[in-house]
Amino acid sequence: MKPQEIDHIAIAVKELQPAIDLYTQILGASVEHRELVESDGIEEVLLKVSDTFIQLLCPTTANSPVQKYIDKHGEGLHHMGLRVENCEEALKDAIAAGATSIDSNPRPGSRGTTVAFLHPKSTFGVLIELVQP
Question: Contact, 82 vs 95, CB < 8 A?
Fold first, then answer.
């Protein structure tokens, strides 16, 4: 698995607008994309920062994984997205190297991407998302 670059850093928030206001002001970032991802029970906003994104994740349902994360850890850093050329190959390589996957196979992500997550218990406490544009 050879990531091309960091695709995004995801931050879990309780409310989107205050987070959008703060990050656009302190980073000079612009809103590049906004999407409701019903399958994950979230609304996301991508703020363009140089060649990467800050992804703000806000739960829309009580059983959303992001809501569970906020309930347990509070708002803050949720995961790191790594851009890969081929998500399926990157997932296989990561598993062969000793990582444990959350997704058994890549699945559709936001922005028309293909994604798969690696479990933080196998990556020193960091939830990693493999992102194929």
Answer: no
pLDDT in tens, 26-57: 999 999 999 999 999 999 999 999 989 999 99
What is residue 123's three-state secondary structure?
A: coil
CATH number of the domain residue 72 falls in: 3.10.180.10
Domain that includes residue 39, residue range: 5-132
What is the pTM for the complete model shown?
A: 0.93
The Cβ of residue 66 has, within 10 Å, a number of other Cβ atoms equal to 24
Does residue 83 contact residue 6 with C-beta atoms inside 8 Å?
A: yes
Residue 74's CB is within 10 A of a number of other CB atoms, namely 9
Pairing of strands 52-59, 5-12: parallel
Domains contained in the chain, number = 1
